[in-house]
Amino acid sequence: MSPVLLPGFEYRRIDVDGVTINCAIAGSGPLLLLLHGYPQNHLIWRHVAPALAEDYTVVLTDLRGYGDSGKPAPDAAGVAYSKRAMAGDQLGLMRRLGFTQFQLAAHDRGARVAQRLALDNPGIVTRLAILDIVPTHHVLNNVTRAMATEYYHWFFLPTGNGIPEHLIGGDPAFWVRSLVGPLLGEGASTEPAVMEDYIRCFSDPATIAASCADYRSAASIDLVHDDETFAAGQKVECPVLVLWGKQSFVGRGYETLKVWQHYASDVRGNELPAGHFLPEETPDLVTAALRDFFDR
Question: What is the pTM of this model?
Answer without folding.
Answer: 0.97
